[in-house]
Design brief:
The protein has about 325 residues and is of the alpha/beta class. It has a single domain, classed as Alpha/Beta hydrolase fold, catalytic domain (Rossmann fold, 3-Layer(aba) Sandwich), CATH 3.40.50. The protein has nine helices and ten strands. An eight-stranded mixed beta sheet has the order 1-2-4-3-5-6-9-10, sandwiched between helices. A two-stranded antiparallel sheet has the order 7-8. Strand 3, helix 1 and strand 4 form a beta-alpha-beta unit. The longest helix is centred in the middle third of the chain and has 19 residues. It starts with a strand and ends with a helix.
Length: about 325
């Protein structure tokens, strides 16, 4: 069953971030809200609506957004992946969610996948354990945890090319020139940031025909991946966090995520015998979405589902 959804925007850093807002059917009173941001270069239409539908069916409001410079959001240059600005967009999305009618501002959950699984960890730490800004719980799916580990999945020749491209792009930015782009995904042996066998078919599987995803990104991000290690402070995550880890992941290595789950004071870990992109579709999606709904119910005060809700949540997307 499709749930009510509005297409809207919220401001962030002088730009407008495009967002979908999903609501449960026949909502009565204030509900918890799940804020969802996608991973490396992906957009709000790339399999996020399927998860949002499951969460709405379980009684949650859901905010799904595009970062500035990506998808339906505004901002130039296009395809600029700036970690700090993406954190600002998350903050703006959380504030937007808390202001929505029918949302309990004390029950905000974060859902991040792949690169944004790292963002969700960082934001949970920033918001602290208590007070009006605290996050109730977090889901980190196939999460980016440690940039140094992620770089090991990139062939050395591509790492050298990406570094050169990143330096050229950074120089262009300083001189006010158009950005230098590099491919996000490519076939094994080609030049792109992600060339594992799972990468190109994986992105193609999660991007629907109407997706605004583009297979390019401003190359300067290649200079910053190694320095971004959100899982290094997993011991400081102050709320329940569910790590959904893919054991055959060659995009965001599973080892650091497993270690982060063990360090997080309220960490929970579920491992899946599949690759990075398999968790978004088919049986991987059915299993992960059911596990995530159960986790959110426990930590957002929704209790056990009724028989009707359980049937709807189990229905194929």
């Amino acid at each position: 069953m499709a749930h009510p959804r509005i297409d809207t925007t919220f401001p962030s850093g002088g730009e407008q971030c495009a967002a979908y807002v999903y609501r449960p059917e026949d909502q009565q009173g204030d509900a918890p809200c799940v804020v969802m941001g996608h991973g490396f270069s992906a957009t709000r239409d790339d399999r996020m609506p399927e998860y949002a539908e499951r969460f709405a069916a379980a009684g949650m409001v859901v905010v799904v957004f595009d970062y500035r410079y990506f998808g339906a959001s505004t901002g130039e240059p296009r395809q600029l992946l700036d970690i700090g600005k993406q954190h600002e967009d998350w903050e703006a999305a959380i504030a937007f969610a808390r202001r929505l009618d029918g949302v309990d501002p004390a029950r905000i959950a974060l859902w991040g996948s792949s690169f944004s699984g790292g963002h969700a960890q960082a934001l949970a730490i920033r918001h602290g354990a208590t007070g009006p800004s605290a996050i109730a719980c977090v889901i980190a799916q196939a999460p980016y945890v440690d940039g140094l580990a992620a770089l090991k999945e990139i062939p050395p020749v591509n790492l050298a090319k990406a570094t050169a491209a990143g330096l050229a792009d950074q120089a262009a930015a300083l001189l006010g020139r158009p950005p230098k782009m590099m491919p996000v995904v490519g076939d094994p042996g080609s030049f792109a940031l992600l060339t594992a066998a799972e990468a190109k078919p994986g992105f193609e599987a999660i991007a629907p025909p109407h997706s605004r995803w583009r297979n390019e990104v401003c190359a300067r991000i290649a200079l910053r991946i190694a320095l971004y290690r959100p899982g290094a402070k997993a011991q400081d995550i102050p709320c329940p966090i569910l790590y959904c880890v893919c054991d055959d992941d060659h995009t965001t290595p599973p080892g650091p995520a497993i270690a982060a789950a063990e360090k997080a004071p309220y960490g929970e870990l579920i491992r899946y015998p599949m690759g990075h992109f398999e968790i978004y579709v088919g049986d991987g999606f059915e299993r992960s979405s059911a596990d995530q709904v159960a986790f959110l119910r426990r930590h957002l005060g929704l209790g056990e589902p009724t028989s009707g809700e359980a049937t709807e949540a189990a229905a194929p997307a």
